[in-house]
């Protein structure tokens, strides 16, 4: 998974689990950047009466690095508050909900959004309503209108949304975790079993999304809107995090529980699959609690990735050239830890300096593609991953092909990838996404999910 349950401790704390991060030049408004940060993964839409929500005791944040040193320069932080209108009912809603302030919406959330830069904290929005859970057609008869009402304008021309969305990440988890049963050559696996049709395991599940659409000029180091791809100011690095107070005191009455101390980061995410695949299990929780600027401590997993060593073992004679390649994976280090310098890929650079850091890097001077390819840069589409990430990008296939050796020639032209490196995929169709902000699809409703499962 991109970052769903990717570490032992955060798998026990889903409300603080950073599950996916997207950053792309907005196709509706190309002078803007849209950043989507997902949390609370693997939500069953019918999971009531206590439907999924953000945590009141969690600080959610989107961090931006624009100074060329991989350190955080801007932070957009959100803190949530839960409200209950009728304390004498167990119901989430006591009747049909037709507006965000409907008296029938018994349990609802609001949030405050702040911008932090150079030690200065500015409140951008306060008491903003969160889109509620999509309970079902009787409870939320016009849910799309309800969720659209949660999209709010920000000072300076920005836009914000917080609430549930359909999970946009697509991958066949059952196949991946069954000793890397990969397509299209499952029949060549060392441990043979009948081939099965590819399944998008996350189809039908929801997440909670924080969506920001911000002017490019508000994210660059000098307030400019760069037009030249090779301009160092055109590249920003993004990561998302979730933090908790260092101590929590429990009372006999849960309403009197209190959290104390400074904020401690417990989850983060830059590039998809980084902690999931490249960090050893015993270090995953430490990675979640560290800042990207210290990622040189985890670089070994990038330079010598375990998956690249496993592929030739699990698929005898399929990856002979990969098996013989013993050099450190400088291609992966460039893509994931420093960004690609000019000259490696024609028309693209995502370099943020020599400091190694897991950041989702975006060149804001590259305009949105008229015909996006799910394979991003590997598919000839420079507006896609690893130049930022869009919901359409098939990051599992892209990263798997890179791990299989397809990107080694970027830094080592003498290497010829195995034919299989350009074929490996989970063979999933690209899901349908919204064509407008916040781009991820309307969350699945509990009633329809229940009836679909029963049919």
From TrEMBL:
It comes from the Bacteria. InterPro entries: DUF4331 (IPR025566). Pfam families: DUF4331. This is DUF4331 domain-containing protein. It comes from Angustibacter luteus.
